């Protein structure tokens, strides 16, 4: 079992989870500063915005977790403030970060979509790094691996507390986030609309999370629906709707694509609720179809104006 403790300083115990989250924030900040210079924003802009984003991300990550795990806090409400015991959610952090960026953009009179295009690579890279905190905490893993041939890392991870091998879903997500980061960095100069980097983040990360969330054993639920899976599908559907709305000359195929995307998103949630752990194949089919529809609807007119110039 990996040691959760990175080091101690007298009475202070520093955990690997905290070290990795801090490292993720610092790397994200450095990358954001690079993007700031690339698009010509004044020096210090990213430092200022991080003072908005980071606190709100932490608070919202905790609030999100508490809201959907209230039964665990009902008898001891003060445990809500014991964040050192664990219990934060990445989607809460993302929503908090976006809220911080929105407040900052309003105060500085900056275009929100342009700001998010600069911050999104930092976000996905931070997620890729931060997921390794789950490795040291032995959390965010998937179902039991019964096939002994698959009982090895990185396919699985041995959970000491259970004495069992489980699917290493945190690893799958981390690797996918690195891939999405590479894709966004390689293509960010080619997009024709402000906000496209954020849109493709939502589509690509949402697609992956919808599948991996269905494999996890610690999901937060809204009724019988996994909340993160529902949000993931809504993200992909929002991107589909955005790309559809941009189409200047909407054709019958565009309308069909949007309708089919909505059907696939609904089908994924229904399949997960009905089939549980056996829903992986229909989940993959639904997500692949939705991403294909995103690509189809993204085809922009050749004369579409760029929202801002990249250096």
UniProtKB/TrEMBL annotation:
GO BP: any one term: lipoprotein biosynthetic process
Top-level division of the source organism's lineage: Bacteria
Known pathway: Protein modification; lipoprotein biosynthesis (diacylglyceryl transfer)
Membrane topology value: Multi-pass membrane protein
InterPro entries reported for this sequence: Lgt
GO cellular component: plasma membrane
Localization (cell): Cell membrane
GO MF: phosphatidylglycerol-prolipoprotein diacylglyceryl transferase activity
Sequence positions that bind a 1,2-diacyl-sn-glycero-3-phospho-(1'-sn-glycerol): 131
Top EC class of this enzyme: transferase
Keywords annotated in UniProt: Cell membrane, Membrane, Transferase, Transmembrane, Transmembrane helix
Enzyme Commission designation: 2.5.1.145
Segment forming the signal sequence: none
TM segment ranges: 14-33, 45-68, 88-105, 165-186, 227-245, 252-271, 277-298
Family classification: Belongs to the Lgt family.
Function: Catalyzes the transfer of the diacylglyceryl group from phosphatidylglycerol to the sulfhydryl group of the N-terminal cysteine of a prolipoprotein, the first step in the formation of mature lipoproteins.
Protein known as: Phosphatidylglycerol--prolipoprotein diacylglyceryl transferase
Taxonomic classification: Bacteria, Bacillati, Bacillota, Clostridia, Eubacteriales
